[in-house]
Write a structure and sequence with these properties.
Blueprint (H helix, E strand, L loop, with lengths): L2 E8 L3 H8 L9 H5 L2 H9 L4 E6 L14 E4 L3 E2 L14 E2 L2 H13 L5 E3 L6 H11 L9 E6 L9 H16 L6 E7 L16 H13 L1 H5 L3 H8 L7 H8 L11 E11 L2 E9 L2
Parallel strand pairs: 1-8, 2-7, 2-8, 3-6
Antiparallel strand pairs: 1-10, 3-7, 4-5, 9-10
Helix pairs in contact: 1-5, 4-6, 6-10
């Protein structure tokens, strides 16, 4: 059967993608950010998955105010990098895994989660920046990717508990797929940041690191964080952290298995006007 062997967590700051694409990674401002991902890039080479299930949020590219799915799974054979207003990023197209994606959709919907099935969409920086951070600038991404978009942009947004429970349903779906596949699940977005209003530029190092602690050692407590705490403590865009709970809910210990191994933890301020967080957990 297929199995989830690891989860990866990372911010997906658009300016990081621009710095990569424009060759600025060694500039003094950006060098500490990219240095923090050197371990992850080597880890990816040493632990190459067969498929990545990548949880992210669309930034009004594939979806708009005309249609706002709470949870959307990409089931297409490929996904093109989106033009977010300044041309598509110069990165490879994303190759999907329609068989596994369709199976996950079937299984998760039968577990009473309503998913929107998307057979065609472009993918924006929310998905491509994490791939760039972990894989560098290859001519092709190292494996197929299943995009899973979560609405954390237009209210109402899903709760952390709902996302955590959804991760458990995704794990069950993956494990019921009748093919020997090594699957990584990624939760992206965050950490603390606010892009508008009187609190624009807000960064809360204490909240971010406490969240990482909970995510590692007490995911139930992380799943219980109320929505208003994300907004109050981590800024209006800090709500993106609920997507990390989907990846965490899919780990083995949540279903009674062994506690995952922490193989990487990184935190840096600032990148653009946000905090950058990165974590890799391996199932024992």
């Amino acid at each position: 059967m297929a199995r989830i062997t690891a989860s990866v967590y990372t911010s997906h700051v658009p300016a990081i993608g621009a710095a990569l694409d424009l060759g600025k990674t060694q500039e003094p401002y950006w060098q500490p950010v990219f240095q923090g991902y050197e371990f992850g890039k080597q880890w990816m080479k040493d632990n190459k998955p067969d498929v990545i299930f990548l949880v992210y949020n669309d930034h009004a590219t594939a979806f708009s105010l005309e249609m706002i799915p709470t949870f959307a799974i990409g089931t297409a054979a490929e996904f093109q990098p989106a033009d977010e207003g300044w041309g598509p990023r110069p990165v490879p197209k994303v190759i999907g895994h329609p068989d596994l994606a369709s199976h996950i959709a079937q299984s998760v919907i039968q577990q009473d989660f309503d998913l929107t099935i998307v057979n065609k969409m472009d993918v924006d920086h929310g998905l491509t920046v994490p791939l760039s951070l972990m894989c560098g600038q290859p001519e092709a991404w190292p494996c197929p990717v299943i995009p899973f978009a979560v609405n954390v942009v237009q209210y109402p947004v899903p709760s952390g508990r709902r996302c955590y429970n959804l991760g458990q349903a995704i794990r069950k779906a993956v494990e019921s797929f009748d093919e020997d596949l090594n699957v990584h699940i990624w939760g992206t977005g965050g950490m603390s940041h606010q892009l508008q209003g009187p609190r624009a530029g807000l960064i809360n190092k204490d909240f971010d690191n406490a969240f990482l602690d909970k995510l590692i050692n007490d995911p139930e407590a992380a799943a219980s964080i109320p929505h208003i705490d994300y907004v109050r403590e981590a800024g209006s865009e800090g709500i993106e952290l609920v997507m990390w709970l989907i990846a965490r809910g899919a780990m083995a210990d949540v279903a009674g298995g062994a506690k995952p191994k922490v193989v990487q933890r990184f935190y840096h301020v600032p990148a653009s006007n946000t905090a950058v967080g990165h974590l890799i957990l391996e199932n024992s």
